[in-house]
Amino acid sequence: MKMTRLFFKTMRETPSDAEIISHQLMLRAGLIRKEASGIYSYMPLGFRVLRKIEGIIREEMDAIGVQELLMPALLPAESYRESGRWDTFGDEMFRLKDRNQRDFCLGPTHEEIFTGTVRDYARSYRDLPLNLYQIQTKYRDEIRPRFGVMRSREFLMKDAYSFDRDQEGLDASYEAMYQAYRRIFDRLGLEYVVIDADSGTMGGTGSQEFTVRSEAGESEIVQCPDCGYAASSEKAQCIAKSKAESEAVDRLQPEAVSTPNARTIAEVTGFLGCRETDLAKTILYRADRAIVAAMVRGDREINEAKLMSFLGCSSLEMADEESVKSITGAEVGFAGPVGLPVRIIADLELGRGQSLIVGANRTGFHLKHVVPQRDFRAEYADIRMIARGDPCPRCGTALEFGRGIEVGHIFKLGTRYSESLGCSYLDESGSEHPMVMGCYGIGINRTMAAIIEQNHDENGILWPMSIAPWQVIIVPVNVLDEKQASTAEHFYQELKKHNVEVLLDDRNERAGVKFKDADLIGIPIRINVGRKVAEGLVEFRLRYEDNASTLPVEDAVAAVLETIKKHGGS
Ligand SMILES: [Zn+2]
Predict the structure, then answer these.
(1) Are residues 267 and 334 in the same domain?
(2) Which residues surround ligand 1, an ion (CB under 5 A)?
(3) What pLDDT band is residue 542 in, cutting at 50, 70 and 90?
(4) Which residues 6+ apart lie within 8 Å of 55 measured at CB?
């Protein structure tokens, strides 16, 4: 491609609304164009990269026998009603009606459609296992689209679904997918961790996320430097240090202390002159329809996802003021476990053998010397957020905190969808069973952004060879110089003959402008054809390295081919 013909435009200035590097560079390098909040067009340069990422994904899916198909993005409501998600998806689902007032949505995810399709086609154990995927646009009406294509309202996803006759079959399909994902992200040149997305299950493989380490990531991750345990901070398992049983705490009985206007942890510790760790906070929630109380130590945060999974409820929100008042008999801020007439779930750290300060269920008062399991009964579970200083749940080493971008997610669905949508098969003896399913996603646009987050410098993007929009750029320093122009053109034609993806910057621009653009758009190999061409020499430069070398013109093609091969291009 000659750059005088290329539809592109780079920007010198950093757009003010782009907060993270990948978003800034995608806009500056002219890869994308914003159409509306969370909605982007891909310009030819960006689209080439996107297509290459898709190409690598396709190769690896095909290699493990997953078949590609294409479902519509515009979907009728019926199957989402059957699975129950028409109601539970909420405002994130883009909904619309056709001219006959029938309900449709723009697919946020396609479990229902795949399940329904397989239900209608595969009836026998002989049809299984079955693995299908598509690369399709998804729609989610995000409350806060941000970080460019990282969290957008329209995005490309590779989603695959496996259908097996039993758990063993699912385990095998899942493992094959896991290995394929590793190859995909390795080929994309990403540094990533695979984290358990299942709370509490030690080394569980029910659900795992492929997370690219990056400070721009939206998810906080914890990692153990010793044993390799990794989890999102939401899901990381917290273990309670065991406490020495102390008889001393049993000698004192609960005692009400006046704490007027002290409702928050900071106010209570300030007022009583105690530490946050001496306190337990009690928070009332509405879990589905029931009110429950959750307790964590004063310096901890409740992890609502863990609490929900412990309760097995489908909705969880803080109880409203009226409910708090009627159950505790006090203003908000004074709830405590003693005498509380609801189910109490306490974090593992609040076990026996300690004396706590808690709300007194009486406005303006707290209780001290409250001993768990003596003065109140609770169910115990890990319901808190992991915190700095916490030990690894596997080996006890202090965990390290970092941030990451979730680019892939593999998930053992089991029979959740096959049961609700009636997707079953007949076994050898003719009896019917629900198929056992897995689902496997990769966010393609987000993967592209993650690659930029990990591969850039102050001058622009450093594309890995495997997905660079073009592998080589030839820059005649002065296009008006006959010798430079003709050598560059000759060289360009030669490389094309060798199937090298090559750009020729034939624009009549200053050399500085062309070099800046080449660096910004991140082409891995640059050949500068300048004054030395009179002596039969050109300059060879790798985007990943600072120094350039000078080569005889006749050696340049071989040098390019060798470099592409060495850096994993094809
Ligand atoms: Zn560990």
Answers:
(1) yes
(2) 224, 226-227, 229, 392, 394-395, 397
(3) very high
(4) none
